[in-house]
């Protein structure tokens, strides 16, 4: 007789519900700077890694090239990021402008407020456990070589 406790409900649905709730929390705080959470993340990667080729940035962020292009457009339009020529005629480089670095710093302060609120609401021990569980699950569910994550 199988007496093991089995998960009830859909894991996908539960994760999406949690992600929506957490994203709303961060977006409300980071949004005070005029950035969405995804834009803050992208801008942070560009500030940290740039100048960087689009393909390399997409790989670092574990997103597809089309998602990167779509998410870059508002940052370029706002003057926070540039997409300029690379070292040869076929390549391009993404880098943050001075205004983009300033915007990222402003947003980083709001992100810290959001993170502290999450830590206080959930409890630091729960946040640490959640991070460890997510990391373990990501490693177990890693895409096959050549596959890509593209969910942004």
Describe the structure.
With 152 residues, the protein is mainly α. The chain has one domain: Winged helix-like DNA-binding domain superfamily/Winged helix DNA-binding domain (Arc Repressor Mutant, subunit A, Orthogonal Bundle), CATH 1.10.10.10. 63% of the residues lie in helices and 7% in strands. The chain has six helices and two strands, in the order ααααββαα. It has helices at residues 11-30, 37-49, 54-61, 65-77, 98-122, 124-140; strands spanning 81-85, 92-96. Strands 1-2 form a two-stranded antiparallel sheet. Strand 1 and strand 2 form a beta hairpin. Helix 5 (98-122) packs across helix 6. It starts with 10 loop residues before the first helix and ends in a 12-residue tail after the last helix. The mean pLDDT is 90.
- What share of the residues does DSSP label as strand, in percent? 5-15%
Biggest sheet strand line-up: 1-2
**What shape does the CA trace take?**
globular
Structural class: mainly alpha
Sequence stretches where pLDDT stays below 50 over 5 or more residues: none
**Which fold name is given in CATH as the topology?**
Arc Repressor Mutant, subunit A
Query: What is the chain-wise order of helices and strands?
Result: HHHHEEHH
The number of domains is: 1
Distance between the termini: 43 Å
Assembly state of the chains shown: single chain
Tell me the name of the CATH homologous superfamily: Winged helix-like DNA-binding domain superfamily/Winged helix DNA-binding domain
- The whole-number mean of residue pLDDT values reads 90
Helix content: 55-70%
Biggest sheet character: 2 strands, antiparallel
Q: Provide the CATH architecture.
A: Orthogonal Bundle
Task: Please write the CATH class name.
Answer: Mainly Alpha
Alpha-carbon Rg, integer: 18 Å
């Amino acid at each position: 007789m199988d007496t093991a406790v089995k998960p009830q409900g859909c894991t996908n649905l539960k994760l999406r519900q949690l992600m929506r709730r957490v994203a709303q929390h961060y977006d409300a705080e980071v949004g005070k700077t005029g950035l969405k959470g995804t834009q803050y993340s992208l801008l942070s990667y560009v500030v940290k890694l740039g100048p960087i080729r689009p393909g390399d940035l997409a790989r670092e962020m574990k997103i597809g090239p089309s998602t990167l292009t779509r998410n870059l457009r508002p940052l370029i339009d706002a003057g926070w990021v540039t997409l300029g020529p690379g070292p040869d005629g076929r390549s391009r480089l993404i880098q943050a402008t001075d205004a983009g670095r300033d915007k990222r710093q402003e947003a980083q302060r709001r992100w810290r407020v959001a993170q502290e609120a999450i830590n206080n609401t959930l409890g630091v021990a729960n946040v640490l456990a959640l991070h460890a569980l997510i990391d373990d699950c990501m490693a177990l569910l890693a895409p096959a070589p050549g596959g890509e994550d593209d969910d942004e």
